[in-house]
Specification:
The complex is a heterodimer of chains A (597) and B (182).
Chain A: H1 2-11, H2 19-30, H3 35-45, H4 49-56, E1 70-75, H5 78-82, H6 85-96, E2 109-114, E3 126-128, E4 131-133, H7 138-149, H8 154-157, E5 179-181, H9 194-200, H10 204-214, H11 226-235, E6 241-246, H12 255-262, H13 264-278, E7 282-287, H14 295-307, E8 312-315, E9 320-328, H15 338-345, E10 369-373, H16 374-386, H17 388-392, E11 402-409, E12 415-420, H18 425-431, E13 437-442, E14 448-450, E15 469-474, H19 479-494, H20 500-517, H21 523-539, H22 543-547, H23 550-558, H24 560-564, H25 578-589
Helix pairs in contact in A: 1-3, 3-4, 6-7, 9-13, 9-16, 10-11, 10-13, 12-13, 13-16, 19-20, 20-21, 21-23
Chain B: E1 5-10, H1 16-22, H2 27-34, E2 36-37, E3 52-58, E4 61-63, H3 64-76, E5 77-83, H4 84-89, H5 101-111, E6 132-137, E7 147-149, H6 156-168
Parallel strand pairs in B: 1-2, 1-3, 3-5, 5-7
Antiparallel strand pairs in B: 4-6
Classes of the chains: A alpha/beta (597), B alpha/beta (182).
Chain lengths: 597, 182
C-alpha cells in the first residue's frame, strides 16, 4: 500500500494543493482512505493529519472503511423518488442482503444513497463504481446484482450505450442525451476552433468588450454579468486563472452533462478565449465526481485541442500559452458555490469564503480568478463568433440570449431544451407535454415552487431565474412529503456547517417539515418556520444557507392550504412525555416511577 | 389601579439571571414602585398567594420539581417569560443531554473520582427527592412561553427594559448592544 500511495502523491507533484486528486486516487485504488493512508499522505505532503482529515471527511465519496468491490450510490433526490427509487432501493437491499449504508460481510457490495447525480431525465439512476446506471427497475437490479456475484466488471454490465458521444469508446455510457430542443447558441452548429481564431484576431480588451456588449449573465444561477467579471479580473495584477464550474449539483439540473458530452471542445474553447482575454496561463475545470465517467473522454478532448494547437504552448503561433487541467470534486453540493469551489480545487474543505475579497481579486491560490459556468463559457464562444449584437437580439432586455433548461419530473418529454429567455411556465409545460401540473419547482430546491396561478410568469433573470433546473410536479404528488421534505433533507446533508444558522436551522426546519408530514405540527409552527427561514437567510455566508429555507417559504406562501390541512389548529402543544422522561432514572436508582403532583 | 404582580423562579439555573436582575442597581427602588412581587426568591414568598401578571423563569427543567414549579407558574401567570440561556435552550446543564441519565447518576454517586466510599453502590432514591428527567428540557418544550430574554445572563438593562415595557405598555426598545454577545 505504501509504495502505491507514495507513487500517487508523486504523480500530483507532492503538493498539498492537489490533495483532492490524491485522496480520489487513493479512494479509487483501495476503496477507502484509511487512517494509515491519512498518516502517510500527511507526512509525505508535510501537513498535519488534521489537514488531511478535514478535507477527507468533508466529501461524501471519501470513506474511512472500504466500500464494496461494487459500490452502489443510488440517487434519492425528489425526482428519483417520483420515478420509483423506493422500489429500486428495496430490490437492491433484498438482492444484496444488506441495508443502505452497509457493506456486505464478504466485501462484495456496498449500498449508499447520494443526492442528485445529474440524471433526473432518466431516473432512478445510480453510480456503480462511478459508472452511471439509469432507468433502474427491479428487474435490472436483479440482473446487476447477479452480474456482481458472477464477478463481471462494471463496464461489461453496461450493455447498451446512449446516443451521440455517450457511445464514444472513452465514454461507453448508457446515459441518454435527451436533447429535445437544440437552440442557436449552445446546442446549435459548432465548429471547433472558430471562436478561438476569431478571439485571437482581436485584442484581449476587445474580446471582453464583445462579451460585455452581449449582456451575457452567468448561467449558474446568480446571473452576474460575465463580461464585467472578466473585466474586473483583467484589472487585477498577478497570474490570473480561468475556472470552469462543472459542479452542477442543484438537484434537477443536468444540462452541463449534455454540454460536456456533446460540446466539450466548446466548453474548453470558452475557457481558452477567457484565458486570451485575461492573459491567463492556466485553466481549471472543476468536474463533479458524479461525472467521473466522462474524465477520460474529456482528457482526450483536451489532447485533441493540444494537437490542433488550440491549447498548450504557443497557441496558433501567437505566443499565447494556456493549458487546462480537470479537477475532480468528491461529492459536495456546496462546491458549486464559486469560493467553495476554489477552496476545494486547492485541496481543502469546500467551505465558502468571506467576501470581499471576491475571487476576481483573490481566487485560486489567492490569485485573480474568474469562475464561470459551463454554459456561460459555451455562450461566450458564440458571442465572440457572431458578436454581442447578434446574441442580444435573443431573450429579454435583462436576460439576453438563450438558456438551457433541464426539465424533469411529471412530463412526457423530460430532457434538455435550449430556449430563449422569456418563455412562460405555461409555454414550457406545453413544450414538455405535462398534464395536470400541481407546481413547477424552478431552479431546484434553492429556487421557487411556482403554483398554477403563476404559470404566466416568465423564465428570466428578472422574473423566475434559474440555473436550469425545472421540476414538474404532477397533481397526485404529495408536495410536502415528496418534495419539500426531500429538499430539506438534502440541505441538511449538504450544509458545510460553517455558519451556525445553516448548520442547525436546516436540521430544525427538516424536523419541523417531518412533523407536518406526520400530522404532529400545529398552526403557529408555519409562521415560525417562515421566521426561522428568514434568520437563516440573513445570517448565512453563502447562497446555500441564504436559499435553503426556500422550499418551505415558497410552498407555505404558495400552497398554504396544503399545510393547513395537515396541522392542528391549536396555539400550543407539548410533546413532553413525563412517563418516558423519568423511566430510566427511576430504574437506575431503584424507585417506583411515580410523581407526587 | 393596583400594581402589576411579578413572580420569579430559578429552575435548573445558577441564579445568575436573578443576580442580573439585582444588577439594575438603584432602579430596584423604581421597580418596587412599578410592580408588586409575589412568589419569588427576592421576597422569599414560597407559594403563589395571588394570580400574577408576569412570571420570569430562569433555568431549564431537569427534574420533576422543576416541572411542578413551571406548571405552577404557567397556571398562575398571565405572561410567562423564559429568562436566559438555560430557560431558552437548556444551557450548561443540558451538556448532559448526550449522556444517559443512568451514566450521569453513576458518575455522580458511584464512579466519579470525587465520590467517597460507597461500597453498597447506593444512589439516592427517597420518594421525597425529585426525580431527575432523562434530559434537561427548555421551558417552551413543556409549557407555552410568551417571551424570551436571551443572554447568560441577560443584561440587567435588558431585564429592566423588558419588565418596564410590559408593565407600562410602552414599546420595547432594545439597542443592539443589549443582545449582542460576541
Amino acid at each position: 500500500m505504501k509504495e502505491k500511495i507514495i507513487s500517487i502523491i508523486e504523480t500530483y507533484g507532492k503538493t498539498p494543493e492537489r490533495l483532492m486528486d490524491i485522496l480520489i486516487s487513493v479512494q479509487e485504488e483501495f476503496r477507502c482512505v484509511s487512517e494509515e493512508a491519512v498518516s502517510l499522505i500527511a507526512s509525505e505532503l508535510g501537513i498535519s493529519e488534521a489537514d488531511v482529515n478535514q478535507t477527507k471527511t468533508f466529501y461524501h465519496f471519501f470513506t474511512t472503511n472500504p466500500v464494496g468491490k461494487y459500490s452502489v450510490y443510488l440517487n434519492n433526490s425528489a425526482v428519483s423518488g417520483m420515478m420509483g427509487v423506493a422500489e429500486v432501493a428495496d430490490e437492491f437491499e433484498k438482492q444484496a442482503g444488506i441495508n443502505f449504508g452497509q457493506t456486505s460481510p464478504d466485501g462484495l457490495i456496498s449500498l449508499h444513497y447520494t443526492p442528485c447525480i445529474g440524471m433526473n431525465d432518466q431516473e432512478p439512476a445510480a453510480l456503480i463504481n462511478s459508472l452511471v446506471f439509469t432507468e433502474l427497475n427491479r428487474e435490472k437490479v436483479r440482473k446487476i446484482v447477479a452480474d456482481m456475484r458472477d464477478g463481471k466488471t462494471v463496464e461489461s454490465m453496461v450493455d447498451e450505450y446512449g446516443d451521440g458521444n455517450n457511445a464514444h469508446p472513452l465514454l461507453k455510457a448508457m446515459v441518454k442525451n435527451n436533447i429535445r430542443k437544440p437552440g442557436p447558441v449552445c446546442l446549435g452548429e459548432y465548429e471547433v476552433g472558430k471562436g478561438i481564431n476569431k478571439a485571437m484576431s482581436m485584442e484581449p480588451k476587445a474580446v471582453i468588450e464583445e462579451v460585455k456588449s452581449s449582456n451575457l449573465r452567468g448561467r449558474g444561477g446568480a446571473g452576474f454579468p460575465a463580461g464585467l467579471k472578466w473585466q474586473f479580473c483583467a484589472q487585477e495584477k498577478g497570474d490570473r486563472y480561468v475556472l470552469c464550474n462543472a459542479d452542477e449539483g442543484e438537484p434537477g439540473t443536468f444540462k452541463d452533462r449534455v454540454l460536456l458530452t456533446e460540446r466539450a471542445p466548446m466548453v474548453f474553447e470558452g475557457m481558452i478565449i477567457a484565458g486570451w482575454a485575461l492573459d491567463a496561463k492556466e485553466g481549471i475545470i472543476y468536474l463533479r465526481y458524479e461525472y467521473r465517467y466522462m474524465l477520460e473522454f474529456l482528457n482526450s478532448v483536451l489532447d485533441d485541442l493540444r494537437n490542433k494547437n488550440l491549447l498548450g504552448k504557443n497557441i496558433l503561433g501567437k505566443g499565447f500559452d494556456f493549458d487546462i487541467r480537470i479537477q475532480l470534486g468528491a461529492g459536495a453540493y456546496v462546491c458549486g458555490e464559486e469560493s467553495a469551489l476554489v477552496e476545494s480545487a486547492e485541496g481543502k474543505r469546500g467551505e465558502p469564503r468571506n467576501r470581499p475579497p471576491f475571487p476576481v481579486q483573490k481566487g485560486y491560490l489567492d490569485k485573480p480568478s474568474i469562475i464561470n459556468n459551463v454554459e456561460t463559457f459555451c455562450s461566450a464562444v458564440k458571442i465572440v463568433e457572431n458578436g454581442g449584437k447578434w446574441y442580444k437580439e435573443m431573450g429579454t432586455e435583462e436576460s439576453t440570449g438563450t438558456k438551457l433548461l433541464s426539465i424533469s419530473g411529471d412530463c412526457k418529454k423530460p430532457g434538455v431544451y435550449e430556449v430563449e429567455w422569456g418563455m412562460t411556465i405555461k409555454e414550457m409545460l406545453d413544450m414538455v407535454e405535462a398534464k395536470t401540473t400541481q407546481a413547477v419547482q424552478v431552479a431546484g430546491p434553492s429556487g421557487t415552487c411556482v403554483p398554477p396561478s403563476q404559470f404566466d410568469r416568465q423564465i428570466a433573470i428578472e422574473d423566475l431565474n434559474t440555473g436550469g433546473s425545472m421540476i414538474v410536479i404532477g397533481e397526485d404528488r404529495d408536495l410536502i412529503k415528496d418534495v419539500v421534505l426531500n429538499f430539506m433533507e438534502f440541505f441538511e446533508d449538504e450544509s458545510c456547517g460553517s455558519c451556525i444558522t445553516c448548520r442547525s436551522f436546516n436540521m430544525i426546519l427538516r424536523k419541523q417539515v417531518q412533523r407536518v408530514v406526520d400530522g404532529k405540527a400545529i398552526k403557529p409552527d408555519l409562521d415560525n418556520m417562515l421566521e426561522w427561514g428568514k434568520i437563516m437567510q440573513n445570517t448565512s455566508r453563502c447562497g446555500l444557507g441564504q436559499t435553503a429555507a426556500n422550499p418551505i417559504a415558497t410552498t407555505i406562501t404558495n400552497f398554504r392550504d396544503l399545510y393547513e390541512l395537515r396541522v392542528k389548529d391549536v396555539e400550543f402543544q407539548s410533546d413532553f412525555d413525563l412517563e418516558k422522561a423519568i423511566a430510566e432514572s427511576c430504574e437506575a436508582v431503584g424507585r417506583p416511577p411515580h410523581v407526587h403532583e | 389601579m393596583s400594581k402589576p404582580i411579578v413572580a420569579t423562579a430559578s429552575l435548573a439555573g445558577c441564579f445568575g439571571c436573578h443576580m442580573s436582575l439585582l444588577d439594575i442597581d438603584d432602579r430596584i427602588l423604581k421597580l418596587i414602585e412599578l410592580v408588586e412581587f409575589n412568589k419569588s426568591p427576592i421576597d422569599d414568598i414560597k407559594t403563589f398567594t395571588k394570580h400574577c401578571d408576569i412570571g420570569l423563569i430562569e433555568g431549564g427543567v431537569c427534574n420533576t420539581e422543576n416541572l411542578h414549579v413551571l406548571k405552577d407558574f404557567r397556571n398562575n401567570c398571565k405572561i410567562l417569560i423564559s429568562v436566559g440561556e438555560c430557560a431558552i435552550m437548556g444551557g450548561l446543564p443540558a451538556m448532559r443531554n448526550g449522556i444517559s441519565v443512568r451514566e450521569c447518576l453513576e458518575e455522580a454517586y458511584i464512579n466519579g473520582v470525587t465520590v467517597g466510599e460507597n461500597k453498597k453502590k447506593i444512589m439516592p432514591n427517597d420518594e421525597e427527592i425529585p426525580i431527575i428527567t432523562d434530559k434537561v428540557y427548555p421551558l417552551h418544550e413543556i409549557v407555552k412561553i410568551d417571551y424570551y430574554l436571551p443572554g447568560c445572563p441577560p443584561r440587567a438593562d435588558l431585564l429592566w427594559q423588558a419588565v418596564v415595557a410590559l408593565v407600562t405598555g410602552d414599546e420595547l426598545n432594545i439597542p443592539y448592544e443589549l443582545i449582542k454577545f460576541d
